[in-house]
Structure formats: C-alpha cells, structure tokens
User: Fold these one by one.
Assistant:
Number 1:
Amino acid sequence: MIKPKLLAVSAIALLAVAMSGCASTTPSSTEGAGADRTIADCTVTMIPKSTDNPYFAAVHTGFIQASEELGGKLEYVGPAAGEVTAQIQRIQSAGQQKSCAIGIAALDATAVAPSLDAAAKTGTKIVAWDGDVAQGSRGIFVNMATAQALGESQFEILADAMDDTGEWAIISSQSTADSKNLWIDAMNEMAKDPKYSGMELVKTTFGDDDSKKSYDLAVSLIRAYPELKGIMAPTPVALEAAVKAVNDLGVQDQIVVTGLGNPGNDAELLTSGQVPAYVLWSPVDLGYLTYYATAAYIEGKITGAEGETFDAGRLGEKTIGANGEIIMGDPVVYTKDNVEAAIEKDFEATN
C-alpha cells in the first residue's frame, strides 16, 4: 500500500512535470511555435484594411505571387470597408484556427493589439504591414518606405504646385492611422523650413477613408477658407474626393490637390492634369515582400532583431532595421509620364 505522504509527494511531482510540459509548449509573443515550422506546412492569414480598395487588391496579387513561389496556404480576409471591429474578428478567427502567422495592415494600432497578443500566445507569429501596430504586439513590420520620406515627398509636390505660398489643409484617413499621422508629422516638420514660411496649414481633418465624408470635408474646407490654395490628401480615397469637390465647386484653377494616389484608379487624374503628381510605391512588391518576410519569420530564419537579413526573392536581400522594421525602398512619385508603365507593372492584373 502506498502511504498517504508518499501519495501526496507523487501527486505534487506529477503536477510539477505537467506544469513544466505546459510551460515548454506555450510560446511567448516573441518566440512562438512557428519557429520550427516551414511555410509549406502553414496557413498564413493576411488582413488588409479593406477588401474593396483596389490598392489592397494589388497587394493581394503580391501575396499570391510569393505564395506560389514559397508554398503555404494564403488566407486573404478583411472587412469590405475599413472597420476596426471587423479586423479584430478576423484576428480572433485566425488565432482560433491556429494560423502560423497573421499579417495585418492595422486601421487602429492600439485597438487591434489585445487580439493580436492573444493570438501570439498560442504560437501565431504577428506581422504588421502597410500600417504598424502597437509596439510589443508584433514581431516585424514591413514598411513601404520611411515615414519621413513619404511625408516629405508628398509635401514637396504640394509646395511646388503652390509656389511655396498660401493656405493649405489636410484630409487624412482615420485619426488612429499611425502611419499617416507620422507622414503628417514629417510634413509639418518640413514646413518649418524658412523656404516654406509663406505656407500656412489651416486645418487637419480625417475622412476615415470614406468617400462621402472626405468629399464633405473638402467642400467644408473650400467654403471655410476662401483663400485656400492646396489640399493634401495622404490617402487615395481623400485624393479622389478632394478632386471631385474642387471640380464641383469650380475652384480647380485655384486649389491644387495632391498626396497619395492609386495608379490603378487614379491615372486619369494625372493624364488630365487635375493632379500634378502623387506619391505611392509598388503595392504588388509590398505584398510580395511581406509574404517572404513572414515565411522567414515563421521558419525561424529571422527573429526581428536589427541587422538580420533574409532572401526576398526577386527583391533581393533585405535587412531588418530598428524595432523590427523592414523598409521596402523609396516612395515613387507618379506623374503623367510614368503612370501608364506603373499600371502595366502593378495594377493591370487587378483591374
């Protein structure tokens, strides 16, 4: 017969072993069970800001190209419109389905963080792309270009078209869109240069990437500021809405509109002269790079540490910078002279 004291000791020992086993198989948000997996055996969930946006359709094309080269099951799921709650629901679903990785273009960096953290605790790798998430809630962030370069390149177009003088306003997307807020910070910093002392930012507004709201904001700005000479729209939705507003109100010769454009939808704005130029990058390459980075992260080839390198297929070797950020390259300024070539390369297959 086993004595009661020995029975108690044995039970405690067994409990300790069980707890030790649980601890060894429960990953942290930085380690994750995905470290010893291969991309070919994985499901990868990519969550855009909206599936109705042609820009994200082009990014999706890049995901598909890379997944065909590397393998893996690609799940491309997102809200039709830009809804944070819908993004959170898709994160939760991907976590429950044990996706090896979730890649997200966050609408709200803070709001999505808790659900990302919960998914990470089950071993899912977290990747941010296009828009970052709260620090500590992802391993790597694939950025199109530096925030400074994107903000400055857009501001330079506007300032040049305004001859460095006059009132200007901003119609951005969501007020919680950290990436665009950083671009705006870069614009405001650049505007402090004495060269631009004749320019005055009169108001910054947020259209939530909604066409009607952005249009109404543009109309309100035009009516509130009769001397307005420029509208900065660092999102294609706001760019299109602002152009429509200045045309509808007959002030297209008075007010210049520029910012972030989408050649897939907005080529005519350039070829017709309604917009002098706008900024973007290759969305197909962004999707392609993000998938390659995600595969390297899943397979443990990178951890997100500064200085690490990985193979990015046709884009060559890429290096991880500070805070796990991977920069794709420099922003591209699109004009009437290069927009057709851009459509052929990056948008034709998605139209």
Note: The longest helix spans residues 4-25.
Number 2:
Amino acid sequence: MTSSTRQSGLRDSPRRRVAERHPALYPLAVRYHQLRRHLAWARSGARWVTPPSPTRPTAPGPSYRVKKHASLLLRQLGEEEMWLQHNKVHNLRLACTRIDTVVIRPGETFSFNRLVGNCTRRRGYVDGMKLSNGKAHAGTGGGICQLANLLVWMFMHSDLTMVERSQHSFDPFPDNGRVLPWGVGCSIVWNYVDLVVRNDTDASFTVRVGVGDRYLEGELRSDREPTRSFSVHARAEGFEQVEGRWFRHNEIWREVIDRRTGEHIGAELLRRNRALVTYEPEAARG
C-alpha cells in the first residue's frame, strides 16, 4: 500500500487551527470544508465504490482471504461513559450495513464517508463517544471510527493503495490491553475527514464487516489468490516532554512477505505519528 497522505513531522507542538483559536468560527469552518469536499468529489473523476444492494447478489467465484480481524466492542472505561459505548454498538450496526459486502473492483475508489453517509439522528444514529481535542464527549454517530480503524488495519495488509487517512492529534487514553500498534487508526468527520483507498490491482476485493456478541468483526477477501502477505508493526516508540506537555511518537512499518516461500522481500515506512498526550504517561511518573 503506497500512501499519498500527509505525514506528520516531529514538530515541537501541533499547529492550532484558526477555528481552535477562535471557537465561534468553528461552524463556518466545518461548512467550508464540507463544501470543498463536495466540490472535490464532483471534480475527481474517480469511479466510486457504491453501497451494497440487496437486489444485486454477488457473482459466485473463487474467494481468498486477505486479512481477518476483530476488535472489542466495549472497553472498560469510567462507568459514566459506558452508556456511550453501548450506543456506539448501535451506531456501528447501522454503519456496517453500508459497508458489508461492498466490492472494490479494479480501478475503483473506496470512500468511507461516501458509503456510510452523514450519521444523523434522522438516519437512526444516536449519541456515542466522540473525541474532540483529546476529550471524550457525546455526539450523534459517535463510535463509527472503530469501523474505520478496523478497515484501515485490513487495508494495510492488502495491495490496495491508501489515498487518504487522517488521525487523531491527541492520545487520550493509556494503553489497556492494546492489541494493535498505537497510531494505526484514523479519524472520520463527515464529510471532509475520510478514509479512502483505491484499487490499482487486477483483483476485486470484497469487504465483510459486522457486529458480533463481543467484537466488531471484519474480513477482506479477494477473487485472486494473493502472492504477498504483510506484517505491520511499530518502531521508535516513546514519549517526550516539550514545554511541560507530553507527546507520544512512533513509526508504523510494513514488512512484505512472499506467500509462497515465506521470504521477506521488503519493508516500507507507512507513517510517522506524533500526538499530544492528555493523560499522565508512565514516563512522567518515573
């Protein structure tokens, strides 16, 4: 997966946006970015993946697993936040119906926002946990980033090309039973903060996602047997203090492996991460 996303450098501190310095301008800034994205979609010339249709069954054919993953639905946070997590599960069920069974054919582009749409109350979404400036709060459609995170992890283990992936500028929670490396997720904001991948291969990829009893479950399959597999991991992890504030950083690398021989055939740097920590890291207590 090559990447044309912006990579964050190791700056002393995150740059504050105009709307952060002047909160009253935030609604105008949101509307401005939404209009820019609508215009970009109209001018893109991309062949966009469309939502699954119950009247259009998937054609039978060979299918090979590319990557399978599951993420825990309910994390042990504060009791006052558990209702937001239960609401998140409801939101995830709705969002999964817009993604499950979609096929990314050669030359097509997958956009999370275009497929899921705007998560409004009118469409059945409820208040779930959202993150803003490193703090959790209730917001309509909150929690669907977990689905985007699941998709990113599967896409990283495929030959799909990453076109756009954002990330949180803050690290709001300490690691507690973390399974995936820190910094492999992504942010979603309708409609201008998106997850976008393009299929530059000759294979078609089918996405399967759903909400199980305890886990959000996903699988990426291909109609052609993959010749490569991938291992994604973090390097150069650490915390550093700058002007009294703590920052977390790492690098996300991907190892490329020949499926037939098991031989390591290459490695690539996917992203450098840096985020402001909003809790007290162990480094501060050492």
Note: Residues 61-225 form one domain.
Number 3:
Amino acid sequence: MNIAHAIFGFWFTYVVGVWICWGLYGSRFGRATGALQGNNWMAAIGVGISYLLVAWLLVRYVALPILKQKGIDDGDFTPKGNRIGRIAGLFVASGAVTLSYALKYCPSGHGQVMPLVFCGVPLVSILYALITKPPTKESWPVKYKALFAIGFVLLLVFGWHMIGLKEIAATGHHGSAAPNQAWKIATAWTVLSWGLYVALIHSGSVAMKGQNKLCKSLRALTHVGEGYFLVAVVALGIYVLFLSGAPVSEQFSVDGCVKALIAGLFGVGGNLCIILAINRLGPTGPLTVPPLVFSGTPAVNTLVFLMPIFSANNWSAPEGFPLGQLITTILIGACGVVLVTRFKPNPPAPAAAAATPAAVPATESH
C-alpha cells in the first residue's frame, strides 16, 4: 500500500500515463479511420461517444457516488468549477475536431501538422500561465528560469525530431483529401484551444469543493465528457448525417466503431492523467506538465510505429533509417526532461501563521 501510494501520489507518474494513453491514441484512431473507409469524422464521433460513456456517465453517476459512499470523496461540484470546466471541455473537444480536419487536408499530413501542434500547445500554455499567475522571484530564480527554458527548447527539438523520424520510416505521409489552406486555421485553433485547456481544466478542478485531488480531477473530467458530446457527437454528427453529402451507410462498420471507442478510452485516460499530474504538482503544474506531455506523447507514438518495422527487420534498423539520429534525439529528450523537472518553479511558500499574542499572566486575587 505504501509503495502504491508513493507511485500514484507522484505527479510524474501521471505524465507517463499521458504519454502512454495519448501515444497509443493516434494509432488507434488511425485504425478506426481505416476501418471506416477513411471517414475520420465518423471515427471522431465514436471517440466522442466513448468520452460521453466513460468521462461523463460512468464517472459522474458511478465512480463519484461510490467514492462518496466510501467516505473518500468529501466534496462536490461548484458553480465556478462547472463554468470553467465546461469552457475547458469545449476547448479540448473542438481542438480535437479541428486537428482531424488539419490532418485530412494538409498537403503533408501528419508530418507537418503534428510538429506544429506538439510544439505550439505547450508554448501557449506556458505563456498563459506566466501572464495570469507568474511565479515570484523567490520561487523561481533567474538561473532556474534560464535552465528551465533550455530544457523546454530541448523538449521541443526532441518532439519535432521524433515525429520527423516517424515520417522517414513511413516514407512520407500526406493528407488523404485535396489540400486546402483552411488546414492552417484548423491547426492554429488546435494549438490555441489545447494550450488554454491545460490551464483552464486545472483551474476548474481546483475550484471544485473538497480535499481529495482524485475526486476533484474526476469532477473536472466530466466536463471534458460533456464537451466531447456536444462537439464531437452532436455538432459533428449533424454535419456527417445532413451536410457532408457522403454516403454514411457505405462507410459504417461495427469494427470501425469498436476501434473508435477503444481510441476514445485512451483519450479519456490521457485527459484524466494530465488533470491529475497538474493537480498533484500544484500551482506550477500548468508550466511544467505541458512541455513534458506534448514532447513525450509523439515520442511514444513514434516508438509504437517503429516497433513492428524493427521487428520485421530482425530488430535492426531498416536500410536508410538514421539510427544514430534516433539515439541522439532520445538523449536530447532525456536532458530536456531533467532540466524542466529539476528547475521548475518552487511551489509558493505557505502563508505564515498569524502570531498569537503572548498570554497575560493572571493577577492574584486579594
């Protein structure tokens, strides 16, 4: 029990959880899209249904009541937490949909869109956190800021190169539809909305009533489920059924829907882990977690993609693959992780307790 508490009470554990969940999400979503005859909109609807079932219905009406019955959950929803959480949920869901659009219509597909997203999101998140709640000079000395910035840049380089290595191994990947310039706007919205989501979902969970961080995180997660339902199920469903003009019946398949639901489960797991990671870390979470998450996620996705390629080649690098570049990139990422985690801002010192007045000695009664 003590070992489990030490592991799951440590914020970096949940960062690794995001890497795994969101790193696998991309491949699962791709399989779902393939099983649905390339209709990524239908795959996104399946993901939205998964969020509705797990992040909203299961969490709100099963998990939270059980935790409250067992005395673990001592809190509740609050108007402020609900308001911020719903805004955050709409942001992250709309960003997921516009990302699907960008991947479909960008001329270079994954290789051009994903580096922009995974480099831009933490930059937006960090700038927003620094503007809204800047750390004090005492909690973040100039030397620490400089080393943190170096680590942040290394993580950007790491994520960018890992995606590039995946493109090399895939011998190029391009959008599946005729390219248009709207993919740039879609990518920009994904970067902005996901960057703001990280800070907002933390604020929403903190505003919830209660002391248990898991329960507060679960309450915030329900609003992510609401956001995915409204954007990825209702709005996108109306478009697919009535406006797209595509023959949905010819592209639908049970196998594709199941794979989309599985992809959604990985997405839900990643969202819960990122909320928990930020909550465990505290006020410095919106600064520290995003660069770690959005560099490690494409790395896991790339490694998952490379494993069957290396396996088919007797666990050797395929001809023309820059193995040395892969090793160098991993070392760069490791250095970035060390610098960002070591030189992040210190949590604010607790307010000093008010000094109690000295007791006045009782006078003798005569």
Note: The radius of gyration is 23 Å.
